[in-house]
């Protein structure tokens, strides 16, 4: 059902683009037919890209397919925004045409030079003799010479027909939308493929043991190893985390978009992560989409020295004090018998200790609040990834990015260090967070 809805939305978006970028900018003919078939091909490219990446074949489609998907989104967005000014401009043009129309009805009719209006014949009258004046010689014009020789006058070239109001508005709108979409996607690609932004955040926990003050977490999420990322993407993230010299590394889900067979080499740099008390991982929704299944990634990460927290908790001992670090599976694991279990992760613990919970989706905070969690670290949202998606994400998740308090629990949501789908980030640059407890 979800796939059918997605295909339907993509089809409607392509039809709208065809209407505004092809039908409104061209007349009937070969050009319109060629552009129409081009739009059909682009629709097939998007569908083929999603099918091939899920089935792990034809990955060469990923770059053109996902880049066009981003262009499709921003072209649609700009064209919708331009509908109102386009309608207003059309109204003014129609009024201007109506004003010119009456003036055209009273334009004087031109008369050929050298011709005279016909004179009505009358009976000859007796007049006095008039002295004859010899005619003055003149140089005949080319047209007059032609008429004298009995040739037809040459036809003057007709001026080009003026551009219709529809074509003018259509082409102007298409040009503005195209420039805006190309600029947004170009900037977004640069942002997505560049170094993640380092965010430094200090979180005050009222019940935190003073000896735990200054404990530092390197938080990263949504790395999304996949067909558009290379090994260098993982190496850069590992290097930046190691430079932070954190006490704990927390990887909060959505590490991969494929199987171990396909992406194992891309994940291998994770074995070089450095921290005082270890690196920990919880599943995100995309781990449950992996063709090889989530279990193989749990095993693979264990071999790389990253410990998965599967509805469980560990004790972080720092300067003689203890912090409970817990992790729960993602909500999407429920359909595969691997859903979150807060009672298992947080039950029978010493409630005098502060607890930090790793949970991929911010919406899981409602359960965290019932179990007395002090701080939840999440990802999933990408900060919206491509503005204005942040407005839509906010309808589903209580926090889109940054630090907030929900039901008495402080929640920090990282924008993620990678991207999903289009390699484009607009208004939500990739992020690695150094979070310090106080």
Written account of the structure:
The protein is of the alpha/beta class and 438 residues long. The protein folds into two domains: 2-97 and 166-186, no CATH class; 197-437, 4-Layer Sandwich (Purple Acid Phosphatase, chain A, domain 2). The protein contains eleven helices and twelve strands. Helix 1 (2-23) packs parallel to helix 3 and helix 3 runs antiparallel to helix 5 (165-193). The radius of gyration is 36 Å and the shape is elongated. The protein starts with a helix and ends with a strand.
Briefly, what is this?
The protein has 438 residues and is α/β, with parallel strands linked by helices. It contains eleven helices and twelve strands.
| Unreliable sequence segments | 112-130, 142-148
Largest sheet: 6 strands, mixed
Distance between the termini: 47 Å
CATH topology assignment of the largest domain: Purple Acid Phosphatase, chain A, domain 2
The appropriate CATH architecture of the largest domain is 4-Layer Sandwich
Rg computed from alpha carbons, rounded to a whole number of angstroms: 36 Å
Q: What is the percentage of strand-forming residues?
A: 5-15%
Portion of residues within helices: 40-55%
How many H/I helices?
11
